[in-house]
Automatic annotation (TrEMBL):
One of its GO terms (biological process) is CDP-diacylglycerol biosynthetic process. This is Phosphatidate cytidylyltransferase. The chain crosses the membrane at residues 12-45, 57-74, 80-101, 108-129, 141-162, 183-203, 209-228, 249-270. The keyword Lipid metabolism applies. InterPro entries: PC_trans. Its main location: membrane. It comes from the Bacteria. It catalyses: a 1,2-diacyl-sn-glycero-3-phosphate + CTP + H(+) = a CDP-1,2-diacyl-sn-glycerol + diphosphate. Pathway: Phospholipid metabolism; CDP-diacylglycerol biosynthesis; CDP-diacylglycerol from sn-glycerol 3-phosphate: step 3/3; Lipid metabolism. Keywords: Cell membrane, Lipid biosynthesis, Lipid metabolism, Membrane, Nucleotidyltransferase, Phospholipid biosynthesis, Phospholipid metabolism, Transferase, Transmembrane, Transmembrane helix. GO terms for molecular function: phosphatidate cytidylyltransferase activity. PROSITE patterns: CDS. The lineage of its organism: Bacteria, Pseudomonadati, Bacteroidota, Flavobacteriia, Flavobacteriales.
């Protein structure tokens, strides 16, 4: 099977799983996002597998990140009544004991890298669930989150196709040598068109979807560049191999990880 066919098959499967979870409902969305998030945290720690400088607390990082995600969702859904600080205080402060008990060269670096995915990965994935859970009167529950992913996928796909066809001017060559300004402009234009088309089909707020598309496109590119920078710092090509032809989960979610907080901010402004 050629790489192009492999990429298409696994890409389609990934899209089907993501969209199906949105259509099934709240529980499926929370579980699928949590599943991908957990893999993403693991992939991030794998960046430092061979590092002599940084040794993150991987079990604590993964379990703590997943616990934080679950706690935030349960609290958001009002499924328990205890004070969230009863969980957050030990979660945030107990790992500092590792400075005393671990024999590593740079314990502060270890802690910083351990905590970092909780902001970079856990928080955006929780906001994706918040976007799903933000109801708009007379529209399906999934309308906002699906629109976000459609715009992200449109931006990624058409930036790649436009850049491959017309790309000559490098965007930021030292970070991502294959990205071009022509590709970025092509992705932006088609993201705007995707937002307009989606708005037309769902009967949504035209101004919101235009503004959202205008912000999501550059935010997605920045998210992609941020992850590319991480990979260059640790000298790896892909974040993982779970999706043949695509790389890892972080490779698939890098754009939406950065775009989701901005998209949710716009939701709060408009709705």
């Amino acid at each position: 099977m050629s790489n192009l066919v492999t990429r298409a098959v696994w890409g389609a499967l990934f899209v089907v799983v993501v969209i199906s979870s949105f259509l099934v409902g709240q529980n499926a969305t929370a579980i699928i996002l949590g599943f991908f998030m957990t893999i993403g945290i693991y992939e991030f720690y794998r960046f430092f597998k061979y590092s002599k400088l940084v040794k993150p607390l991987i079990p604590i990082g993964i379990l703590g990140g997943l616990g934080l995600y679950i706690t935030l969702i349960l609290k958001d859904l009002s499924l328990f009544n205890f004070d969230i600080y009863l969980f957050l205080i030990p979660l945030l402060f107990l790992p500092f004991i590792s400075i005393v008990v671990r024999k590593t060269a740079h314990p502060l670096f270890d802690l910083a890298i351990t905590f970092f995915p909780w902001i970079y990965i856990v928080f955006p994935f929780f906001l994706m669930f918040q976007i799903f859970n933000h109801a708009i009167p007379e529209q399906p529950q999934w309308v906002l989150i699906l629109g976000l992913f459609i715009m992200i996928w449109s931006n990624d796909s058409f930036a790649y196709l436009t850049g491959r066809t017309f790309g000559k001017t490098k965007l930021i060559e030292r970070i991502s040598p294959k990205k071009s300004w022509e590709g970025a402009v092509g992705g932006f234009i088609f993201t705007i068109l995707a937002g307009i088309t989606y708005c037309f089909f769902i009967g949504g707020d035209f101004l919101f979807w235009i503004v959202a598309a205008g912000f999501v496109s550059p935010a997605g590119i920045i998210g992609d560049l941020i992850e590319s920078k991480f990979k260059r710092l640790v000298d790896v090509k892909d974040s993982g191999t779970i999706l043949p032809g695509h790389g890892g989960i972080l490779d698939r979610f890098d754009a939406v990880i950065y775009a989701a907080p901005l998209f949710y901010f716009l939701i709060l402004l408009f709705y």
